Amino acid sequence: MKRNLSIKPLVAALALIGTTAALADINIGVNVSATGPAAVLGGPQKNTTQLFPTSIAGEKINWIVLDDASDPTATAKNVAKLISENKVDILFSGTTTPGVMATVGPASDNKIPLIALAPNRLDGERFKWTFTMPQPIGLMAEPLLEHAKAKGYKTMAFLGYYPDAYGEVWKNAMEANAAKYGITFGPIEGFARTDTSVTGQAVKLVSQKPDSVLIVASGSPAAMAHSTLAERGYKGQIYQTHGAPSPAFLKNGGKAVENGILVAGPVLEWEQLADGHPSKKVGAEYAKAYEAKFGKESLSSFGGHMWDAWAIASRAIPVALKKAKSGTPEFRAALRDAIESEREIAGVHGVFNMSSTDHSGFDKRARVLLQVQGGQFKVIAQ
């Protein structure tokens, strides 16, 4: 007897089963600047995602990692794709501050927790859904001002990204706090992230002879600005923000950055931390895993922000799963709440204790002062 049975219903049923199973997966969307001008920051962040597990609490994790090529317009497109097509439960995004600002709107509009990889200043509904990995600017400004006061410096000039979101928050923080340390902040000289020379700005600053200069930049531009001041004969103290410390900074700056002082998270020189420092053990874990895969002395503090993003998410996900199924609005809300409520999460950049009013969660354990000595970073205060 001839049987003319169609297999289409069976295929459709199997497809439906597969779709239902996929809805139980945890989708984590990552957008970084792995190429372009910010690649020195975003490259290590992308590399770090290769060290993460593919399951947690019995659930499969789908990592969707995209590169915005250091273009905030591309960031917005990537984030839209992650939200609409990949249905992500959480976002790790924003290698640069402009990249964060391109992400926060879609994240908050869709009520998706965002772990931002660059500094920012947010409020309202955008703040509610955004958690920031780099240390708050005010927290990092304090040790620089304390050092300047101890040395008797009375003036501190600014050379950095400006007008720019990162430069703006640093400028505002220094203007708000410098007077408390007996320091006059200014003059202000700005440059763009894509500029290849700051000679004009450096000449102006050198002529005004400030006691110290704060460079507010990241990666190679930070080294370029530092080198230019040295080449133009500046003899005062040069400070750098936590956007600068990296192997590339030392390599590109060479002897010109010798004696420069940088504020940084603990991870870059984890071996120099006191044994009781909470970031020493996790810093060792990250450093050894990263360098085993990507080579000796390849470690970057910027990749550490991605490692910490997962440290936070990995604590929050099991908590959220007890309340809701992944892939649902309820799960995303529970995930956001769990990030706020978990305590003493040890990261490579410090210890996180977030709350409804603090989406950074850092304290003084999140910073060290480094000085370039003999071509290497040396911890001078922790």
Describe this structure in words.
With 382 residues, this protein is α/β, with parallel strands linked by helices. It folds into two domains: 8-134 and 289-363, Response regulator (Rossmann fold, 3-Layer(aba) Sandwich); 137-264, Response regulator (Rossmann fold, 3-Layer(aba) Sandwich). Helix content is 44%, strand content 19%. The protein is built from 13 helices and 15 strands. It has helices at residues 8-24, 39-49, 72-84, 97-109, 124-129, 137-150, 165-177, 199-208, 219-231, 247-253, 278-294, 301-321, 329-341, and strands spanning 26-32, 55-56, 59-67, 90-93, 114-116, 130-132, 155-161, 184-191, 212-216, 237-240, 261-264, 345-347, 350-352, 368-373, 376-381. The chain has a seven-stranded mixed β-sheet with strand order 8-7-9-10-11-14-15, with helices on both faces. A six-stranded mixed β-sheet has the order 2-3-1-4-5-6, sandwiched between helices. Strands 12-13 form a two-stranded antiparallel ribbon. Helix 9 links the parallel strand 9 (212-216) and strand 10 (237-240). Helix 3 (72-84) runs parallel beside helix 4 (97-109). It is globular. The termini are far apart. The model is unreliable at 1-22 (pLDDT under 50).
Keywords:
single chain, 382 residues, alpha/beta, Rossmann fold, 2 domains, 7-stranded mixed sheet, 6-stranded mixed sheet, 13 helices, 15 strands, 44% helix, globular, disordered N terminus
